[in-house]
Amino acid sequence: MNWPYEWQIGWRYTRAGRAGRRNGFISFISFVSMLGIALGVAALIIVLSVMNGFQKEVTDRMLSVVAHVEVLDAQGEALADWRALAARARENPAVLAAAPFIAMQSLIARGDEMRGAVVRGIDPAEEAGVTPLAAQLRDGVLAKLQPGAWNIVLGVELARSLRVRVGDTVTLVAPGGQVTPAGTVPRLKSFTVAGLFEAGHYEYDSGLALIHLADAARLYRLEGATGIQLKLADLHQARAVAQQLMQQLPAGLMVRDWTRTNRNWFDAVQLEKRLMFIILTLIVAVAAFNLVSTLVMTVTDKRADIAILRTLGASPRSVMGIFVVQGAASGIIGTLGGVVFGLGVAVNIGTLVPALERLLGTVFLPSSVYLISRMPSDPRAADVLPIALISLLLAFVATLYPSWRASRVKPAEALRYE
Q1: Which segments of 16-149 does DSSP mark as H helices, in order?
Q2: Which run of H or of E encompasses 335?
Q3: Which of residues 258, 287, 304 is at a domain's end?
Q4: Torsion of CA 85, 87, 93, 94, to 10 degrees
Q5: pLDDT over 80 (residue 49)
Q6: CA distance 309 to 415
Q7: What 3 state SS string does 290-307 have?
Q8: Of the ranges 108-117, 174-183, 369-378, 381-390, which one carries the lowest mean pLDDT score?
Q9: Domain span including residue 117
Q10: Structural domain tally of the chain?
Q11: pTM of the model
């Protein structure tokens, strides 16, 4: 090989230490350091992939009910002409579909049970083009939402808390009472439970009810829809598209995307992911800096070799390069091993977790407790590449001090007792 001799010697020191050699213990410590880096990198990739999987799963369930972008009147009033506004929004190439809605906080009562919920008035035909849940229920449950029929569709958890079934009657208490000579009395309306829906997200399953848009307008005394829901070609571009629509649509409107509608949850997930990244990166750092002790021991063991190289004309910079190569090789091997192992587990976690559950006779995510009963995983290059680069950087930094010490070895002192 025509490699520089610093590379050749550094690589030789990295793989030296087979059984019977006097530096076998040092090589074992070097192997443990590489293994520690590999396990740290693999753990970081697996954990972030699982967190991405959970985030994607919850986001998909959330967006089965919630539109990507909502356009509302800034004062909370009904829109003058929602059809013209929807047509103008569809001029943006990122917008695929639009649907009107009315959303109001109300009370739903059944006997002694009363629960607060968001009552959303929708047009079933238009809604099916915006939210996946409406598309699934369009020809079934939502088909029963007809103008003037006064039917309502409840989330399964909301129906369970009210102790109602399909066909039962519930009373909806609208906000803002009706003024009479006897005083202000609440506006009440009886609805028939036409069906139930299950989005898989507790917030919506327990706090959302659907009625027809025309019934909502009559109940809440509105002239039309209070907002428009928009479906985008790419949900991850929601914030950017919302900013474009703010400039494109008339003044006096409020445009909010799904990340702002569910801002608390979205921000909490992002914060948790950053904290996990920092914590697990510290584990990789500990493993990487084990190379310091390994290289210090190697430098002590190779003092005679260093002295001979110096007497043969090797410069302190070349001696330093030898041990930088040794440490960097350990870091590269450990990082690549960790990336391969981590991606292998992350990609096949859907098979490995059930097998582990069968082996241990337990269930990690019981469906009776958690909404998600399987372990999702979504490895992303945006996570893997920074992990690998940080691991390599830490390994390289860990080699600097031992390599500098090696370059400071004086040949005469090292060879005095040889």
Answers
A1: 24-62, 82-89, 124-127, 132-137
A2: helix 316-347
A3: 258
A4: 50
A5: yes
A6: 12
A7: HHHHHHHHHHHHCHHHHH
A8: 174-183
A9: 69-258
A10: 2
A11: 0.73
